[in-house]
Amino acid sequence: MCAKEEVGESHAPAVYNGIASRINEIGLQLYPVSEYDSGKGLPYAPVDWPNAGDKWGWRVGKRITSSGTFIDRYLYLLKHFKAPKGGKKNSFRSKISVKKYLQSQYPGMDINQFFASFSWMIPSKQLPRSKG
Length: 132
Known about the structure:
The chain has helices spanning about 95-105, 110-115; strands at about 15, 20, 40, 55-60, 75, 90. It is of the alpha+beta class. The strands form 2 sheets. Strands 3-4-5-6 form a 4-stranded antiparallel beta sheet. A two-stranded antiparallel sheet has the order 1-2. Strand 1 and strand 2 form a beta hairpin. It is globular and about 45 Å long. Mean pLDDT is about 80; it is low at about 1-25.
């Protein structure tokens, strides 16, 4: 990853559908995606964690919030990880489930640092549907 750049008024974070992200302070460029899109690694999933070369996967569903981010968002472990208890796949659909898994497999790790390394919120290309 490149060196961290000082973020000032002239380097405001990118905004998609009204979402400003402090993630850009560490050099991530967020981009909006379509429903059911998926990918690997940054900016929406961790890389090089816990081992160099590791790239987690991500996927979004269909539903979006009124602020334009996906409600249905999934994070996928690499195949060489142990599957979470009760899970059929190596996937998580909430921050809480990721946190519980990591705390059970990596006690003492810095969960906040883990989540700060990528963006959990994924902006949508579609505009939120108005209720009315």
